[in-house]
User: Fold these one by one.
Assistant:
Number 1:
Amino acid sequence: MMTSHDAIIIGTGAAGGIVACVLAEAGKDVLLLERGPALSFSQVGRDHLRNQRLSIYGHNAGPELEGNPRVFVDPAGNARTVRPHEPDYHNNAACVGGGTRVYGAQAWRFMPADFRMASTYGVPEGSSLADWPLTYDDVEPFYERAEWELGVAGDGPALRDYVPRRRDYPLPPVPPSPQTVALKRGAQQLGWITSPVPLLINTLPYGRRDSCIACKYCVGFACPTDAKNGSHNTMIPRALATGHCKLVTAAMADRIETDEEGKVNGVSYFVQEGGLAQERGKAEAHTARAKIVIVSAGAIESARLLLNSYSTHHPNGLGNEYDQVGRNLQGHLYPRAYGLMREKVFNGIGPGVTLATTQFNHGNLGVIGGGMLADDFIKPPIDFWYDSLPPDLPRWGLANKRFMRDNYTRVLHVRGPVQDVPSPEGRVTIDRAVRDRWGIPVARLSGSTHPATVVAAEFMRSRGEEWLRASGCERVWSWRPGLVLSGGQHQAGTCRMGHDPKTSVTDKWGRVHNHDNFFVVDGSLHVTNGGFNPVLTIMALAFRSAAHIVRAYFQCATG
Amino acid sequence: MRLTRQQQQTLRAAVDRIIPPDNYPGAWQSGVGDYLARQFESDLRPVLDDYCAGLTALEAESVARFQQSFNLLSDEEQDTVLRHIEAGEVLTAWDVAPCIFFNLLVNTTAEGFYTDPEQGGNRNGVSWAMTGFEEPGSPSPGSPARQPRWGGSGQPAWGGGHLQ
Ligand SMILES: Cc1cc2nc3c(=O)[nH]c(=O)nc-3n(C[C@H](O)[C@H](O)[C@H](O)COP(=O)(O)OP(=O)(O)OC[C@H]3O[C@@H](n4cnc5c(N)ncnc54)[C@H](O)[C@@H]3O)c2cc1C
């Protein structure tokens, strides 16, 4: 059975939900495919050992641990099969809403210089650092749209030195906590500018949903009052309300279909009857046709899908004439520092992240880029035990227990994403020898970021320690960053946009070069990934691409 | 659970040195044994043989070093045995790498003690009260009060906003 649509969108994450909504509200008939299920609050649950932040034995927003392997190749060249909750899998999430179902919801804009990295710094050898084919000013109206349509809480005037904006945030920022006061004092002493952290969280009722109740479970969990704004509770419900968008869950796209001339004309996908818990073999194969196909499966899976969609016209996969698909995989090294305060700095009021400095995103001597630094979301004690204890503290015995007892509420944390200097060797390819539950060849991850990223991360680690000392910490500890593959929850860059088909995969709208009806719209597009959490930029670009698609393809054609 | 009686006794004594009782309960009293019993049937099943081999070897180390069962040693003697194992300085033949066993023991004990009580350990949220993560009697996360805890009647305590 074959259905036919104006557009098929693969993936319901940050970008997919937005594009589905804009197209459906323009009256277009949209088929929206999502490999995972729609998860309720209780399905996501509150398991401290199996969530998208601490995934010791599993996680809570997909993909399922069995039947969804990837292959990871370590720096020495050893390949091994990894399961979705292992760190080397570089997972984000697989459910309706994608990463936005369980994200922390920091809502940063990139800075103007983030779109011009090559012009600003030059290109170090071995790196694929490049300028974007668009500027901050091109994206600014769409940042604003994302902030207002999904709902962001923040303090625009306090951030005016970081990025120009025409309009303030729709919601006031989260309030300060004791740690904010300490860190603000420290920053003032150092002469650093700070501001509240913008968050996609309702600090007041917004979008006909409740406000935040300040629980302790933002990152890696779902929100009990639905006050955390993601695709699943903003754009996708709007898309479905039009009656023009059909969402199919447990639907795994395995191939973009092309006709005899090599033109994209549809998607094949498997639907797991009865849901994902069912045994292998009960998947039903479907093909749907569409005028436009839009890939939004996240940076690793989008690249995998394009590479798996090879044919006689496209022997190396779609959009991969010049071996660009899957390269430049980026995320963020995330240096962090901890310090011990004499007084309590924890009041148990979530989200926990309150204050940031963007002082070191650029203009650091001998460093390419830099990054934002902020305090952290509240960490459950077991997460704190694994992540935050001083390296010289015994790992067991009374000393360890007493440190937890006395100091869980006295440890100040700062951390932040460091702008990746991309390497073409940090990449996604296909491993035909390893298949997932549907029989589809899996993603193979290899390489690492460029060594210049490690320099920037080390610089930011020192700034973190400096901030903590100035804030009154008696003892400060942190870890040296290493040269690793960066991807993970902030994965981006695998189908970068650009003017030149030889060095990029799509044009500045996300249209795949040499195709007129085939788009990528998710984090894959990022030429560089900013020194910020990436989701608001993914959202802004999705609004921009969606507006373009409606304008260029549908307004005159069907108008 | 496939642990022998001896292994059970060793485990009970060992987890109480990893997280000893003080003015807050130790690992065993707070339910780490229950947490582990569940985990041995599920997530830890693949490493259960290592875990058991380690407990048996720990007992043998104790006999070799102090001529007594581990669970009968004094706190100080027990810590001495554990410290040697942690450092890889063992007197007997081990069927599992001592450091692998030791890491498992430490990590899984901490997990049972600090994770959410639904998993069998951390009875009554004892470690959450100890750390200050949850004040005793704070509202259950599943049944949220409908007001932000930082504010009064829907208005945030930090006042105003920048609504346009
Ligand atoms: C715990 C956590 C905390 C985070 N915190 C922040 C934060 O504070 N700030 C921030 O900026 N970012 C944060 N992120 C990252 C953010 O969620 C991602 O940047 C964002 O979701 C990426 O958007 P995307 O559209 O590129 O892909 P995704 O959101 O990953 O969406 C891709 C979707 O496609 C689906 N899919 C994949 N393959 C297929 C297929 N073949 N067929 C059908 N469907 C498919 C997936 O299931 C998924 O739903 C966090 C992420 C996590 C997990």
Note: The CA atoms of residues 156 and 168 of chain A lie 5 Å apart.
Number 2:
Amino acid sequence: MRGLRTTALAVLAAALLGAVLLAATGANPLVAFESIVVGAFGPDGLPDTLAYAVPVAGMATALAIPLRAGLVNLGGEGQLVLGAISAVAVGLQVPGVLGIVAALLAGVLAGALYAAFAAVCETALGVPLLVSTLLLSYPAVSLAAYLVRFPMRDPGSSLPQSEQLPPDVHLPALADTGLTAGLFLVLAAVVVYAVVDARTPAGFEARVTGWGPRFAQYAGIDRPRLTVRLLACSGGLAGLVGAVVVLGFPYRFIDGALITPQYTWIGLLAALLAAASPLGTLLAALFFAALTSGGFALERATQVPRELTAVLQAVLIIFLAAATGLLRGRKGAA
Amino acid sequence: MTQPSPDQPPAVSLRGIVKRFGDVLANDHVDLTVAAGEIHALMGENGAGKSTLMSILYGLLRPDAGTIELAGREVSFDSPARAIAAGVGMVQQGFALFDSMSVVDNVVYGAEPTRRGLLDRRAATAAVRELIERHELRLRPGDRAGDLPVGSRQQVEILKLLYRQARVLVLDEPTAVLTPAEADRLFVVLRELAADGRTVLLVTHKLHEVTAVGEAVTVLRDGRVTMTAPTRGLDQGRLAAAMTGREVDLDRVYPPGRPGAEALTVRNLTVRRGDRRVLDDVSLTVRAGEIVGVAGVAGNGQTELVAAIAGLLPADGTVRLGERDVHALGVRERRAAGLAHVPEDRGEVGAAPTARLADNLAVGFHRRPPLLRRGLLRPEAVRDHAERIVTRFGVRAPGVSAPMRTLSGGNQQKAILGRELAQEAPVLVVEQPTRGVDIGAVVGIHTELVAYRDAGHAILLVSAELSEVLGLSDRVLVMYEGRVVAEFAKDEADAEAIGLAMAGVTAP
Ligand SMILES: Nc1ncnc2c1ncn2[C@@H]1O[C@H](COP(=O)(O)OP(=O)(O)OP(=O)(O)O)[C@@H](O)[C@H]1O
Ligand SMILES: [Mg+2]
């Protein structure tokens, strides 16, 4: 209840400040807000918003998983890209429906192993997870970029992209919504995360670790093992998201296509703001997806420069972060 | 009590203070008057509303009703900053120091002297040094706060108040974590401050402290004042009755235990820190049906002993639970092998303050029935389990879904102890079981521990309260500089011999 009110207030305050900023650049704030909303939810915008929301929600959940235990996975981009390129590599080799399954599995496995490797760097070698995940992300992205320029390059095109997957290795599309069956895979992942988090001993132990590392140690939780497992789940889901994206239109790996839309960072932001709670992360991810997709519409409709929409988002994020900080702020004497 | 003369209004006057948290009436029309230059003790059971009342005076909480007057002038604080400006300072229950910063930085934090807009470090150090000398504190301005023993940390907290020129000093259970010697040093400082015309409000659970330093005492029960009296000639039984509303047997004697088979065997346990042996070749045995007490001045290896037994600290030597050698095992396996553990630090180690009480109590029970069924945790079983512990150990809480931190300090302690006793593990290692716990509840906890022993469990009890060790233990070990330097059977243990051993003096 209080959470809702504070959040609403934060959004309102951000909107007010945003209106002032917009007015200062000569745009009409009301028109601008209208184009954001219409751009995000109008008949033309909604399909784009949803198509964008699927990977964002997937990545948000992927990054929320370790965050629940206070572990930050900064390597989502590498795991996402590695999952995608592995899925394409397998999908181009294995024909038929089996190819879909094999490609998805390859994506999950690649992401999981790579993230687990980053975790082992911390638990066995003492490299902080923040550093190991982030640094390992770059070689993964570069590897994919190399592969689609040379060994896996589409010979019929001059762009750095792979060949198109054969039609039977496409994820089924959902009517003309622009969505694929990947939506259900991501939704299933969210549901599994919610259940594991709330109802299983493993999820409970992750939360205990998030409450305090010393309390977790006292409770007998094996932190290294937990770290490796959570990172493997996180990377596995990131890899799945990568696979889902490339098994949808345009059915190939295009260099940079998973990076430019900022799935990873917007997802991380959503997970952070929601303190990694499963439902909160999903809601925050959907909200940011709508906002971003509305932002594109704003650019088209009002000539408001791209930078300003970024500023608007930043303002909103800061207000939301402050609101959640206030909600979580500890106060009161023992 | 110093009578306020008509021309000199009381330094602090709280009238009709009411504070409600949901269904809990934490303060119910509380009146409290303290004269300038008086040391006034505030007592009451855990959850009686002491911290709440003091937090209101310090501007941490807003009262729902009532007025605050300082030296006759009505004030209203919406933040501690305003209270500090008006001359009220508070040391909260548990500390709030920055461990990595120096004493000076901690003291001036938030009120730094500046020169041309920059921190004037020289002026800061000089001011702090001057205060340390004037009040004869044993502190060095440049020391890192995190390296100081608790007694000195307490003094840094007080220095913070003096630096901000507080006229009214509020200390919430300052002695809970102090050794008796450190507490005595604190009292010397407080008496000087009072002689200087400052007013001190002291929250404590220790009866002897009330009569030792307080000039007057106010007792709260269930948020209401049940007694205000000068401490001279005060009867302790009456005080206890005002707190609990019933007779408390303060000098209860417990029958000895009947020791059986060895339950916990420790051999040559050694913990090194740098090249110092903080735990030095300690061997001990606790049998089923026996309480073995460990006495000693804080910081002589007791904490390391407990941590090493629990598996939290790597150590050389062997630890056996019953027949089983657990030395190579981790915390989880040791717990599974039959070890329960109540740690000294309840805020960070023993509990998660931000998590729900029910979740705090589920820890350690979450991998077996009845909480777990078919691989899933059952929310209603988690709740029932918490309700059972809360009821059995008389934990007063706003509810099992409330965050742990909304429980009063003593009730957090009871909850943690309750959780560990409920494990029914053959061996319980317990450190400072009654720290911050009110006298009525102390008796309750002691009774529980003895009953646990009589049910055939082994207890290793580490406590800074010598009377507690003496009252409960079937055998007493004394630790000094990481070693066990003396052992006494129940009938030969007396305070004097133990006191000498604690100081490192052992009979040949
Ligand atoms: N933020 C809060 N929300 C809900 N209830 C609270 C909160 N803070 C305190 N309480 C409740 O108010 C009552 C009084 O608490 P308070 O901390 O003042 O007790 P206390 O006298 O200081 O006890 P102790 O001796 O254990 O420290 C308790 O029942 C406590 O659970
Ligand atoms: Mg208190």
Note: The pocket of magnesium ion (ligand 2) is lined by residues A 334; B 50-51, 93, 172, 408-409 (CB under 6 Å).
Number 3:
Amino acid sequence: MMRLPNFRFVAPTSVHQAAELLAASSGDTMLVAGGTDLLPNMKRRQQAPGTLVGVRHIAELRAISSGDGVTIGAGLTLTDVIRLRQGFGGQAREAYGALWQAAAQVATPQLRNMGTLGGNLCLDTRCNYYDQNYEWRKAIDFCMKKDGETCWVAPSSPKCVAVSSTDTAPALLALGASVTLVSANGTRQIALSDMYRNDGIHYLTRQRSEILTSVHVPRLDGWRSVYWKLRRRGAFDFPVLSVAAAAKIAKDGTVEAARIVLGAVASRPVEAPAEAIAALVGRPLTDDLISEVAERAAQPSRPLDNTDFTLVWRKRMTKFFVSYALKELRGDDMRARRLKVSRQELL
Amino acid sequence: MVQITLTVNGEPVDVAVAPYKTLLEVLREDLNLCGTKHGCELGECGACAVLLDGQPVLSCLVLGVDCGGRAVTTVEGLASDGRLHPLQETFADLGAAQCGYCTPGFLVTAKALLDEHPRPTRDHIRDALSGNLCRCTGYQQIYEAVEAAIAKGSR
Ligand SMILES: Cc1cc2nc3c(=O)[nH]c(=O)nc-3n(C[C@H](O)[C@H](O)[C@H](O)COP(=O)(O)OP(=O)(O)OC[C@H]3O[C@@H](n4cnc5c(N)ncnc54)[C@H](O)[C@@H]3O)c2cc1C
Ligand code: SF4
Ligand code: FES
Ligand code: FES
């Protein structure tokens, strides 16, 4: 049996109340939304908050509004996010493709009914030496991320290199999303990219007293976006490499603007180098250009030996995944390839 | 202990739950409903699936204290008026249950699918059941049993 440790549970009904509870706490209070990341971690004693603030009863966190783009409540489940694609007109469905494709590839149907967008964006970083039960971790004398001092992946590393494993964050970065964070002291809106840090322990710039209330995706007229994920099985598994790509392509096929983001290759989602994007803009997506850009965009991919599959292979696959994403943006029929590498049909 | 009232298989139930107990533990230990199975406890198998307000979820990752006012359907609630649900009949008839450990999770998840889409395609069935592991059947009999239940006019 893996029981949860004991804790106090409170269920506020407004963001304001939740913010007051976080402000009044001594620091061992955590938010819980779907619980699908936090509760397994608590069972393994990776996290042991004294108080849990459940956000399920906060209606404000489930609001959706559109106007200049779309604002999505952080408390909506991933199933809700996938359903949103039916609400978007044809153009938005294409433009926001990366978001629903990413949400649809998270975990399993049951977990998508439970897990929220906010929880997915704040997902704890993962590592083979960390996502283990207490006895296992104790047997290796723990590690720097929890209860220990050494990083067993990179013993000379001064910082933890646990992997950013969220599927929706790379997708939303490719869409240029921003997030709203609310605390008892006020509200701030920041670019989603600025919420992440390349540090396996301090992977978020979000303060402990802040609640992620909503995600704003700008209007993307004429854009398309896609999300590609590498994992062993067609369900359950976290990404061990992912590529989100978005582009605005003119009628004559010329790329006018683009963003490419790599997931699960560092402790934060990684934007492709500016020169990779510069090489794309103003040119049509020919096979030659795609191979050239894929090579450049894959440069920052430096996976380490702390997830499934060998790191050499994961690194080598990066450029192929970028090229699959760019080909899908070009309009190629990539369904057979997608089924082969992701083992899931996107229905 | 926190006193909550929830609906289990159509009947209101009052129960005092310890905050650290998951819905799985509340069902099995406090309400003696052992049909829902206890597998990995970490969201990695689907054996503990139940319907919460009609949607399939993993009871090993739901806090019992957060279930006040909600409606839970477990495998015990599938039969009605002493008659098995068509899915239960076809699972038994077509060898979709071998050791049976995964069966309650598959049954409630398949029921939710058929409640929402009375005529799903094979791809749709496979996708809806992709969060349930089975070590015995190889899945084929399970998909066939769901299709046979549809043919029987399951609802
Ligand atoms: C078997 C399994 C497979 C999985 N596979 C994947 C996968 O393939 N891809 C993937 O991305 N994820 C995966 N997950 C992780 C998880 O299910 C999802 O990331 C889910 O979206 C997390 O959301 P949640 O609401 O359940 O988060 P919770 O567990 O409730 O919270 C996660 C973290 O976010 C914080 N938090 C939650 N809401 C807020 C908020 N509004 N403001 C600020 N902080 C907040 C919590 O304090 C906690 O630290 C998997 C989980 C399991 C158990
Ligand atoms: S990367 Fe190192 S410090 Fe971080 S969780 Fe893994 S072993 Fe621990
Ligand atoms: S016991 Fe809940 S998913 Fe395995
Ligand atoms: S019948 Fe044995 S695990 Fe499915």
Note: The domain at 68-347 of chain A is CATH 3.30.390.50 (Enolase-like; domain 1).
Number 4:
Amino acid sequence: MKSFFAYIAEIFSAIWSLLTGMKVTAKYFFTPWKNVTQQYPENRDTLVMYERFRGEVIMPHNENNEHKCTGCGICEINCPNGSIEIISKSIVNEEGKKKRVIDQHIYHLSMCTFCNLCVKTCPSDAIVMGQNFEHAYWNRTSMTKVLNQPGSKIMEGIKE
Amino acid sequence: MAFEKYDFTPLTQSIHQGLIENVSPLLTLIIEWTIIGVLFLLFIAVFGLLLVYVERKVCAAFQQRLGPMRVGPWGLLQTIADFVKLLMKELITPKSVDKFLYNLAPFIVIIVPFLTISVIPFAPGLQALDFDIGIFFVTAVSSVGVIGVLLAGWASNNKYSLIGGMRSGAQIVSYELSVGMSLITMVIMAGTMQISEIVELQRGGWFLFKGHIPAIIAFFVFVVAGTAETNRGPFDLAEAESELTAGFHTEYSGIKFAFFFLAEYINLFIVAAMATIVFLGGWMPFHFGNFEGFNAVMDFIPGLIWFFLKVFGIIFLIMWFKWTFPRLRIDQILTLEWKYLLPINLFNILLMATMVLLGWHW
Ligand code: SF4
Ligand code: SF4
């Protein structure tokens, strides 16, 4: 007799749990304005990517065309795919001392897996992840980018 | 009754009269058969495509997506484009299949919805065949489909197809029982198997309300078993994509694949239509007690629209199941049938019989 009641109870608890599941999907169904699909090419102008999105590695410059990269090469060492090449040069500064600065921060977009390791390990936070994702090019060489802009120099006060 | 003005009988009668006065009786018969055949063919093709579109949209909405949006406005032409693509595809017959059975299977599967659809009353006077054993006919022919599925699985000579076919066979054979029994429950209440009469009996109120507790139990059993019979999720383990590629129709391409695909959706319609006829009063409008005004408004809506409203309601319910519940394992499916649905059903028949004897239903 006990097992009979257990059987009945099981049926009702099963129906209850199924109804709980159906309630969840019903909520999705009847709130279509919360849909996650983006109508991409149409909403291109208004599309806002999420902050956590990793589109490409970029190096922000300020209004005086200055960046924070010291040319230390840590990002190059940390990149698992060898997508970064640091070419540094040495210059003589005002005090007459020799100093190593970045010449070209070369970034191979075609090899990057957007793992974020370079951004994480950069000691001076010189590079960040950009949000542009339209990376279709006619030519493979366009995917090799120099991140420091021509004529740019390092900001004042960045520790080497 | 107000809604008799939507009766199709005068129309069909006048066509019949017009024919019989002008041509021989034999030719009349042939012409009428052809008209009905073409109508059903059109209906199945159009409704199948529509259902595929609806399914994709409903599924998308359940998953917070938009579904097809590119072909035509709101993706309305998507399924037509898909169908054209299927028609143009090459018909590949794998080398080691059993040629005859392999080619036969899709036709057996597609024949079933054509047979069952003939007894469905879409509106007053719009029913091709009105057997006095209509319910029995439906349960009988709908079990022919399993032969097609088994043949397809066997003749494909492929382990995925065979496993899929066998699963499907085990499943359909078991759930056939529940479908039949829940229909029998309602037949006990109606006292007839003639579909037109069953609909007529629900003029004063749908069987779901008239028969209260046992009718509601039977309704739920029917919807669950009907979902299983159409091989739809959560009972779609016959074509479980993740383990069996596409189950019994893995080796089919082009139009033969389209047959299986179409048959699945039309079977969905048939299950929904049967549920509508037996439990929800077919094309009968919804009436509530003695609210004359309300009832008059309900009568104003034609029976055809009522029928399709109810059918789409049930189809929506079945789609809701599919996109909510995870797929069952084969042992779970058989447990559900033999340990739960069948005993409940047997008890329910007893309950219904008692109720009918004591006159406890309305
Ligand atoms: S980007 Fe950062 S880690 Fe890479 S060279 Fe410049 S300062 Fe060093
Ligand atoms: S994101 Fe990863 S793969 Fe890309 S450049 Fe940085 S470290 Fe290399």
Note: Chain A has two domains: 2-34, 56-154.
